[in-house]
């Protein structure tokens, strides 16, 4: 019993200590001119879906959930967001060349078609980010048309 | 009793916390390791070249003075052959090798406009090669189609000492078709492999 108690206290201390290693938040009020929505005429419904389902990890502005204030959840999120932005950052859309845009659009389409995005671990908490079949069809059609216009 | 529960609860949280934290550390460590080993591989590869281990490569380099683009082409052809053979694992491996040769590509000797075009091509191709190194064969072939365009555009700028054939299979990708480069005139289809090995035609000859 005494042994358990010591472990518990140590763990508690560890949990408190890691709270002092905050992350740099991925937040920005500013939507750059190079944003996907600025460059393309995106219909309002699709705009909204992208904003809710994609922009948290694929732009410079994340709408953070409450648990992002607590470690180690925050580290987990930081990793995911960094990875997401490396693959695709909607805020930097205009800076991609046509070749890159083409590849990005191809990936967007196949990721949505195969239900790989948005991530399951993300939609588990963000129920509003789940794309309905209608949403998916709409986004895929739009992205396909955009891709064809580049080729 | 409730005290025991509390203690157990805290222990559980702590355990999860520590696991996650230690995983994170381990991940960073292993990625640093793999970076170092990549560098080592490169130096080994260069060493091999200087030993004249790759005779044909050396010859080509002497012919057009462009070892970089040639290395990319050679790895691209190895990848193509793996896809022709329906070999998913081999294609993964070759995708990884191609990532390395793409990353060591040096565009600095080209003119400004060529440089930016080449860097763009390389960046795009690297991403496709990375995906190829970790996906199933259907996805590998999808990425290979775009990769082939990148490599073709690269050759248009860098040139090559080899005689190449641009080949085309009209049936791939729901009849949208898919092109690829080959060193041989004879058709060996990387998009269908054994299923339709000889589907396609020579679309263009380079050199």
UniProtKB/TrEMBL annotation, chain B:
Residues 1-23 form the signal peptide. Residues 72-162 form the DUF3347 domain. Keywords: Signal. Pfam families: DUF3347. Residues 39-61 have a biased composition (Basic and acidic residues). Residues 26-61 are annotated as: Disordered. This is DUF3347 domain-containing protein. It comes from Maribacter flavus.
């Amino acid at each position: 019993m005494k042994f358990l108690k010591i472990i518990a206290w140590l763990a508690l201390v560890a949990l408190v200590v890691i709270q002092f290693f905050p992350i740099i938040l991925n937040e920005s009020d500013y939507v750059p001119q190079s944003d996907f929505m600025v460059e393309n005429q995106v219909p309002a419904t699709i705009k909204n879906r992208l904003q809710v389902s994609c922009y948290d990890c694929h732009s410079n502005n994340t709408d953070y959930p409450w648990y992002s204030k607590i470690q180690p959840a925050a580290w987990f999120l930081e990793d995911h967001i960094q990875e997401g932005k490396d693959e695709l950052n909607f805020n930097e859309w205009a800076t991609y060349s046509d070749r890159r845009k083409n590849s990005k659009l191809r990936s967007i389409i196949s990721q949505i078609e195969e239900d790989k995005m948005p991530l399951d671990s993300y939609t588990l908490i963000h129920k509003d980010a789940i794309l309905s079949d209608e949403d998916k069809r709409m986004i895929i059609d739009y992205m396909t048309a955009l891709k064809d216009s580049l080729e | 009793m409730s005290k025991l529960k509390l203690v157990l609860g805290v222990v559980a949280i702590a355990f999860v916390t520590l696991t996650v934290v230690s995983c994170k550390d381990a991940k960073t460590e292993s990625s640093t390791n793999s970076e170092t080993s990549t560098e080592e591989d490169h130096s080994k590869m260069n060493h091999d070249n200087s030993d004249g281990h790759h005779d044909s490569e050396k010859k080509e380099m002497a012919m057009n003075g462009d070892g970089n683009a040639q290395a990319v082409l050679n790895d691209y052809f190895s990848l193509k052959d793996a896809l022709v053979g329906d070999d998913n694992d081999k294609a993964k491996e070759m995708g990884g090798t191609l990532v390395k040769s793409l990353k060591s590509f040096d565009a600095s000797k080209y003119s400004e406009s060529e440089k930016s075009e080449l860097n763009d091509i390389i960046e795009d191709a690297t991403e496709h090669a990375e995906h190829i190194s970790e996906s199933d064969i259907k996805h590998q072939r999808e990425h290979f189609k775009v990769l082939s365009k990148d490599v073709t555009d690269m050759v248009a700028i860098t040139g090559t000492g080899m005689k190449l054939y641009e080949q085309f299979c009209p049936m791939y990708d729901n009849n949208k078709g898919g092109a690829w480069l080959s060193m041989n005139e004879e058709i060996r289809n990387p998009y269908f492999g054994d299923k339709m090995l000889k589907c396609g035609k020579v679309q263009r000859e380079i050199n």
